[in-house]
Every structure is written in structure tokens, then in C-alpha cells.
Amino acid sequence: MAEQTTTSSSAQASDQNYWSANLRIIFISLIIWALVSFGFGILLRPMLAGITVGGTDLGFWFAQQGSILVFLALIFNYAWRMNKLDREYGVEED
Prior knowledge:
The structure is a single chain. By secondary structure, the chain is mainly alpha-helical. It has one domain. It has helices spanning 2-43, 45-48, 58-89; strands spanning 52-53, 56-57. A two-stranded antiparallel ribbon has the order 1-2. Strand 1 and strand 2 form a beta hairpin. The longest helix is centred in the N-terminal third of the chain and has 42 residues, at 2-43. The two termini are 33 Å apart.
């Protein structure tokens, strides 16, 4: 009986660690997304106006293309990190 309780509590701790790691990945991705799309594209655009990328200033580039490219990179990074996390905790898909 005590062995079953220990197994249950270790499984619960493992589940808690898995979700903590999952939420950490999500929050970091959201912070990067907000910084790039809102920060670089809107708030910091006047500061980035002097830097030229592809014939336009960097702030405009982030607002039009850069935030989309970073968002796509975040999607692939999230999928890669979650697959790695799933394998680490033994919950990967077949």
C-alpha cells in the first residue's frame, strides 16, 4: 500500500514538473512574440528608423515581415522543444 502511494506521489511530481516546463516554454515564447511584434514594430520603431533592412527601416520591416518570420520560428521552436520534453518525460507520441 505504501509503495502505491509513493508511486502515485512520484508520478504526480513528474506531471507537475512536466507542466511547469511546458508553461515556461509557452511564457518565454509569448514574451519573445510580444517583444518582436509590439515592441519592435510599434514602440521601438522610432529608435529603429535609422537602421535600413531591404530598403526600408528596421521598425517597419519588423511590423510587416519580421514579426511573421519570428512567429513562424517560434512555432517550429515550440514543436521541437515540446517533442524533446515529451521524450524526456516519456509521454511522446508513437
